Amino acid sequence: MIQQNENFTIDCSSPDVAVLAGVLRLSSPAAYEEWLAPLREALTHADAAYTIDISKVQFLNSSGITGLSRLVLLARTLGKPLVFIGSTKTAWHGKTLRLIARLYKGLEVRLQ
Amino acid sequence: MPTESTYGSCTAVLPGNPLASVDVQVSALDMMVHWGRCSLTADFLAEFIAPSFADSDGARVEISIILDELIENAVKFCASVEEPVVVTVDNFDSVIRVQVSNLCKKEHADDLGAAISEVLRNNPEELFVRTVEFAAVEDELSSRLGFITLSMHDAVRLGARISKGSVDGLHSVTVQVVIERDGMPALAPTSDGAA
User: For A45, which of A12, B104, B107, B136 is 20 to 30 Å away at the CA?
Assistant: First the structure.
């Protein structure tokens, strides 16, 4: 499943990888819930580790960080390994992903 | 009679006069109807100020992130959609100052003061974990991470000024972020030293 609007794309067409790209600046955590629902579904049903690739996300506001953090809490509840992929070229990726990683020991951050 | 409370970086005096300044006044109603204009305003101001820095792309992103968080917050908690939100960016020699001002109700001003105080008192990483865990259970609709994520950067100093009852019983609030240029690589000056 691929969702998109004029600012961003969320590609969940692979069963164990979600790829987010663009500018994600929705108005509240609730506004992210619907867009991130396919990720929750895929994460819940993934056979092994689930990967979320944000390496092509240019901007993510604090409501979006909350949305991703809630996915991390879901993975923690399910005991499912989770991988976040970010880019070394975008300064906030490393900072934000290291912060999110504090929520779950089963989360691996890869910066490439 | 209005009383003023100041927090964090708003209690400090900045050196000299700004070398460059830009400010815009936007309508909260317009921003709420067209939410994308929050980021458009942040991007515009960041784009305006970014050529002063060697890594103008990096500077544009860093400044836009800060502006967007502050503008979104001001728009959400503006007392009335008819009230303006005022956004100012000042480029001093050694620091960049970003300020966003709006009028809000007493309960929102009290919440803002408490939130800023909490961020200033605590380790931001520990506060981040506590806030996410709490929000997941107790507070589904709000984020409360904006000030925390801004304060994660060593070069960023957060502050606020709240004037109680200053206009028609409403409270005037200004949230300020001061960025130390030495602490943020993207904000190094251009090779000719121009600010």
Answer: B136
- CA–CA dist A96, B6 (Å, integer): 29
Answer yes or no: are the C-beta atoms of A107 and A101 closer than 8 Å: yes
CATH code where residue B14 lies: 3.30.565.10
This prediction's pTM: 0.91
Interface residues of chain B, partner chain A, Cβ below 8 Å: 35-36, 38-39, 58, 61-62, 64-65, 68-69, 72, 76, 125, 128-129, 132-133, 135-136, 140-143, 145-146, 148-149, 152-153, 186
- B191, part of any domain: no
pLDDT in tens, A18-70: 999 999 999 998 899 999 999 999 999 999 999 999 999 999 999 999 999 99
**B192 inside domain:** no
Rounded to the nearest angstrom, the gap between the alpha carbon of residue B185 and the centroid of all alpha carbons in its chain is: 20
Q: Which domains does chain A have, with CATH numbers?
A: 2-111 (3.30.750.24)
Tell me, what's the ipTM? 0.90
